[in-house]
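thoughts on both lines:
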Amino acid sequence: MASVPNSKAEYVAQLLLDKIVTANLEPGTSFGTEADLLQQFDVSRPTLRESLRILESQGVLELRPGPKGGIMVRRPGTDILAHGLSIYLRMHDVPFSAVLKAREAVEPALAAEAAVNGSEEDFDAMQASIDNMATIKDPAAFIEENRLFHSLVAKASGNKVMEIFWATISIVAVGEEHGVRYTPRSQKHVIEAHRQILEALRARDSDQAAERMREHVGELEMFVKKNYQHLLDQATSIVARQGRRVS
């Protein structure tokens, strides 16, 4: 049963969203003009504009100003989920350590499913990521490649909901944004961990893949405890849209 809207604008926003979904409108598609929508939904201009802003904040629409602008359909990204989650965690004083624990719970499950559902193309992409990591000197580039490897494991799981959970939590749980930095020695350790995970995935060994991933993501917490103890009880940072952060 759908929830009851709190305002006329929220009710209209639900109608607009239903229209987008039922019409199966693709991202980049024009949603019509303000005049068209006013005629279709018989509401005041202020109410319609508020409804459009609601959907814009949810990543469903993009309101482009100017003569060549318009109301365009978008597809919400995980940055929107991460933003909302991080605000909730911050406002409820949830520490960074709890976010790391959540990541430790999600990623082994993804690795176990990837061992069953992953394709050889998925595994080849992971190998390419590992090979690339071994050549990277720039710390920021290494971090991005590390994230890519984990995203490939999540994708290979075939579980879209779990993949989205991972993508959301991983944005909030990025230790580097809290000041964590990988040394050359720790980078080599990460690469070796990735190799062992991929070995278990190729062997289609779910238990081993989950265990190796559990050890790998658990090492991040151990690394933080050893080198950045003060961060564990630090409040979770607020993630702004498009991956930016607000301290």
About this structure: The chain has ten helices and four strands. The chain has a mean pLDDT of 88. The longest helix spans residues 96-117.
